[in-house]
Structures are given as C-alpha cells and as structure tokens.
Amino acid sequence: MIWLTWRQARVQALAAALILLAVLSAVAFTWPSLTDAARVSGFAACHGDCEAAAGEFSALVATRTAILVYYAGTALLLLLPALAGAFWGAPLVARELESGTFRMVWSQSVPARRWLAVKLAGVGGGVVLLAAATSTAMTVWAGQIDRAYANRVEPVIFAARGAVPVGYAALALVIGVLLGLLLRRSLPAMAVTLLVVATVQLAFPVTVRPLLADPVTTVSALDLSAESGLSLSVDERDGSVEALVDPGVTGSWVLGNRVLTAGGEEFTGPMDPTRCGLTAAHGACLAWLGEQGLRQEVRHVPAGRFWALQWREFGVLALLTGVLSGFCLLRTRRRNRGAEAALTAGAVVLPPAIPRGA
Amino acid sequence: MTAALETRNLTKRYGRRTALSDCTLTVPAGRVVGLVGPNGAGKSTLLQLACGLLTPSDGDIRVLGERPLGGSPRVAFVAQDTPVYPGFTIAEHLRLGARLNPSWDAGYAERRIAALGLDPAQRAGALSGGQRAQLALTVAAAKRPELLILDEPVAALDPLARRGFLQALMELTAESEVSVIMSSHLIADLERTCDHLIVLRDSAVTVAADVDDLLATHHRLTGRRQDPAALSGGRAVIDQRHTGVQSTLVVRSTAPIDDPGWQVDRLDLEDIVLAYLTEGPR
Amino acid sequence: MIEFHLDARSGVSPYMQLIQQVRHALRLGVLREGDRLPTVKEVVARIAINPNTVSKAYRELEYEGLVQARPGLGTFVTRTLAADAESHRPLRHDLERWLAGARAAGLDDESIEALFVSAFRAFQEARP
C-alpha cells in the first residue's frame, strides 16, 4: 500500500523536491548578500530604536537579488496550500473514481478505508514536509527583513512564516481530497478546491484570527502634535468630522484605531465653525480640539504575540484537518459513497464500453 | 457445501431509484455460473454487492457463507470495462497485486503474462482492449481467490480477444478450484463456458438451471394454430406466438414430445433465454 | 488426436456435441483403439469451453464403453465403431429402395428429408 501511494504520487513528489530545492538554493545563494546588507547598514548590530538603520537596510536590500527571493518565497508560501489542494488533494480519489480504477484497487485484499488512510498519510506527510521546510527556511532567512519591515504579525506575512503555512497546506490537501470524493471528477474538484482554499485563506484573518489573537486595546490622550499625523476631514453639509491618526504602535497588527470624545463616544464632530471655519484664526482650531479632551483608542495585536498566535492558529488548522480527514475516512468506510454515486451516474444509461487504447 | 453467493430479499436503492429489489437467489459453488438479463435488471449492482463495493439497503447477502467485505482475500473482481492504471506498466500492476494481497501467486502472474506474450515493461495505457482485459484477469486470478466475479468482462472486446479471454478464464477454472460468476450479454459465450445459468429479470430470478438441462428440456413446437392448453401435463409453456393459422411455442418438458401435430425443434441457449425474457409481464 | 469444435447455434448442448464428435471420429475410423483423446486442459485451452463439460462428456463416453481414463496418462479409445459399416450394407440397401419409392411418389428432396426426420424423431422419442 505504501508502495502504491509512492508510485502514484511520485510525480508530485518530484515536483515537491524541485520546489524545495529551488527554495533552498535561492535562500542559500542570497544569504551572504543579505547578511552583508544587514552588517553594512548597521542594522544587524542595532538594538532598541533602529528606525534609521532599518530604513538604510531596507533601501540596501531593495537593490539586491534578495528582495526577489523575499517576494517569491512569500508568494510561494501563500500559494502552496491552493497548489497542494488542487493538484495533490483533489485528484487523489477523484481520478480513481472517474477512471473506474477504484473498482480494481478496492477489490484487492485492502479495505477501502485503509487504502485512503495510507494515501492521506503519505501524501499529507509529503505536503507537510514541503511546507515545513519552505516555511522554516523563509522564516529564518527573512528574519532581518521582517524585523526591518516590522510587519511579521500583519495578515499577509503572518500566513507565510512560522507554523501556519504547514497548517494551511495540510488543511487544503484534505479539502481537495474531500471535494474529490464528493464531486467524483478531477477537474471540477480541482477548480472548486482552488476556490474554497482561497476563500479560507482570505476569510481566516478576518474572522478567526482576531478571536485567537486576543488583541490589546490601549486608550491614550490624543496627541495633537505634528508627528501624530492627525488629519481631519470635514463634511461641508453637516459639519461632521472623520478623524484619522497614526496608530503609533510599530510592528503591531492594527485591528481598530478610533478617536473618542471625553464621554467615550467616537468623535464625529461637529466642530465649532467660529474657531475651525475657513475664516478662523490660525491655530484656533487646534486649540479648540485640545479643549475637547479627545482620546485615541487603538486595538492591535503586538508583534510579541507572533509565536503565540502562530501556534494557536496552527492548532485550529490542524484540528480542522483532522476532522475533515476523519470525515473522508468515514465516508469511504461506511458506505463507499463515492463508488455508489459513481454507479448511480453510470447505471441509468450504461456507458458505451470502449476499450481504452484500442 | 456453502453456496458461492446467496441472497435473500436483497435490495439496493440509490436515493429514490431502486437498482435491485427483493432479489433472492442461490449461486452454487465450484461452478462457472453465467448471469444474464437485460440492462437494468440489476446484474452489475448484484455483483458489486457481492464484492463488498456496495452495501445493501435491505435484505441479506452471503458470499462463501460470509457477509461480503471490501478487501476480502477470498473474492476477486474483474469490473466492467476492466479498469487498469494507464500510467502503470504491466510489471507494476503485478507489483500492486503482490503488495495488496497476502495470498498473491507471483509465479502464476508472471507465467500468465509471459504466456500472453506481453512485455512486463509496457504501460497498461498502451495495451489493446483484449490485453487490458487479460491483465485485469491476471491480477484478479493471481490473488488466488475462492470466488472470481466478472462483470461483463468481454463486452467491449473483438471476437478474437473475447475468445482469448474466455480460453484464459476456462484454463484458470480447469487448474484451480475457483468458483466463477460472470455476467454477460453474449449468451453463446456463456453456453460454452458456463455450467449453470441464472436469468435475472427485474431483480427476480426467472430461471436458474444447469446449461445442459436447459438445452435438453426446452423445445420449439410449431404446428397448426391451437390452444397450448391442449398439451398434455408436465409441460410448461414459456413463450407462445400465434398467427391466423400457426402456433409457435417454447415449452419446457422433461418427457419427450411425440404429438404428431407439432413439429419439434431444438433451441439454442440464446433462444431459450430470450423466450424467458420476452414472456408476458410477471 | 482429434480436435473438437463447437457449434453455438445447434441447440445441442456442448457436452453432447463433444460426445457426437468422438463417436463420429470412431465411426469414420479417424480414431482407433489405443488413441489418446486430448486432455481436459487441452480442450479447454483450444475451444474455450467449461472444463466440467469436457469431463462430463468423457465420463459419458467411458460409461458407453468407448473410452477409458487411465489416471496420469489420459483418456484412451477402447473400442472403435468403424467395423460396423460392413454390417450396415443391407440396411442401406433397404433405405435406398425406400428413397427411390418416395421419389417415384412425387416427393421432392425437402419433403423426403422432412418426412424422414419427423418419422425418425417420433420413433426416437417414443422409444428413448
């Protein structure tokens, strides 16, 4: 059974090996250039407030090949789940169902459930290995860049670092297998898998991740100095105001950023037309704002929560993967539903028996 | 001796459609049994239930005295259109069989492939229909099953390939104790290869008997138009057709027919089966 | 050694066809005493027939005393039917006379054959 799994997945295994080889060689090849940039810019040795060094490092990296590896590696990790689901997961069972070979392989002395379990474990193991190796390589290699960009906990980069890509890849694979089992045709199963996996990847950061992240809410007096980047846009008709201000938390994933009144409501104006109108004296409006006792409320996930959030999300993804795998096995064991459905489709009108390759 | 296959009120539904309803039959062991019937009679469904590829909706089924289980080493199955993996070589199919079946007879499988003149390194996708069927038969037979089930194995084959397949199947039954159940529309093939025949119509067994008995006891009577009731007892009229002046009957009779009013002719198996299938609604 | 063949549309059961072919070969002198019949496996491999059918035909022939199975060696002819041809001469003469009479009575070939077959069947089935 293990041999059969290997024999049927060896093309995908070869593709995986090539992908991994490309990633590792790209990472190894650009590593000296990257460390050199960190050393030259002084960013590597910098601790504490490194904004200037980070800027210099970023500018330096942007001129080197490393930046291409950074974008390509990140994109690969974001696309890997969809690829695994569509090209490895969906055809796993669907191809057997549509070609009828399931009737041959399920009448050997191996129950269909064990057949699927071994295939899932084998191919799943391969996918997990590939994702883990790629993600580890990228997480270590891009460590300095992530520190300089201070965006590791933000949604896009978060899903391409650490343990989470492994979870997404495994989940996508099982989604592919399940859809193949349900749809019984490779191509539709691949298309729907792409769609479902993309939806999961987009929906997760919006819906589930904030729940897992346990974000921090900080309320502070509104900083009216020029550095705070305060901007007010006033609606001419009713004088209502939209206030925007820098969140002031570097490296965090900002979920919410509002300006509140002294009473705790969101500040929407209206402003005093005599002091903030077009005819008002310069600086009068700022003074008026200062008198209102406005505060800034920021809801964010600090960069320090990165690994805690990584493992939580990985746990949720692993759990989902396990549940869906169990569902696949149950469906195969209890009723061989795929087979029955394939028969239902074929039994109404007996398909013309054309010998393949004749 | 336990029956090769025994069903009682076996029913299989796909949603609202019923593929097999209330089927009760017994297939003797140690024989080559032919299963015939029109499309939709439930043959394929019955055979897949027997292999454990499907589970019954209702009723009882026993294969070699046991409830059928997918993955049983005692039962082998050659499915309709004899599916094989097009990307696998012949040798890899044999390896698949060896890996997946504890009872695999590697020597037999290799001898068969050599006897067929096939190159083990050839991809199955490049085989002709007949060669593909032979490969599927080899994989099923090298499992050394007690019961071999074949679902229309020769339907798609040209006459030469069909003959080759049936020769291989008969050689297999000659050299081992395997029981065989085979469905087919080609009754002439069943006539020579089977010793027992089951005619299935609307999930019900219309007739089940040894081929020799069927041939010996069925006659076509042609004569002046008359009421078949005039025939003496011990004879069953299977099918009757009347024109203005002539009556043509198919009768089953164990005693000889010496009525000079009838011309008595022999029937081949196909005519007998057709008579049972065209018989008025049950 | 003789080769069997099967006529699928004759309505004669396969095992009976095998028996008839052996008898025919004995009558024509194709098979003589001591000749070996093909083994069950050989017959099966050549004409794709059920092995049980071949065994059944051989058993029937053995019961008739025409052949004998020697375990491990094969099935051998023990008696020939060819010699009988000489003793059939008077019968054949009678039949030819009857045929001439039928022709003189105005029957054509087909009518003669139908008459013969129907009389023969009736005779056969009345005294099986």
From TrEMBL, chain A:
Name of the protein: ABC-type transport system involved in multi-copper enzyme maturation permease subunit
Keywords from the named record: Membrane, Transmembrane, Transmembrane helix
Transmembrane segments: 68-94, 115-142, 162-182, 189-208, 314-330
Domain of life: Bacteria
From TrEMBL, chain B:
Domain of life: Bacteria
Keywords: ATP-binding, Nucleotide-binding, Transport
Molecular function, one GO term: ATP hydrolysis activity
Pfam families associated with the record: ABC_tran
ABC transporter domain: residues covered: 5-227
Keyword Transport among UniProt keywords: yes
Family annotation (InterPro entries): AAA+_ATPase (IPR003593), ABC_transporter-like_ATP-bd (IPR003439), ABC_Transporter_VariousFunc (IPR051782), P-loop_NTPase (IPR027417)
ATP-binding recorded as keyword: yes
Protein name per the record: ABC-2 type transport system ATP-binding protein
From TrEMBL, chain C:
Stated name of the protein: GntR family transcriptional regulator
InterPro entries (UniProt xref): Tscrpt_reg_HTH_GntR, WH-like_DNA-bd_sf, WH_DNA-bd_sf
Keyword annotations: DNA-binding, Transcription, Transcription regulation
SUPFAM superfamilies tied to this protein: Winged helix' DNA-binding domain (SSF46785)
PROSITE patterns cross-referenced by the UniProt entry: HTH_GNTR
GO molecular function: DNA binding; DNA-binding transcription factor activity
Database matches in Gene3D superfamilies: Winged helix-like DNA-binding domain superfamily/Winged helix DNA-binding domain
The HTH gntR-type domain, residue ranges: 12-80
Superkingdom of source: Bacteria
UniProt source species: Actinoplanes campanulatus
Keyword Heme annotated: no
Pfam families (alphabetical): GntR
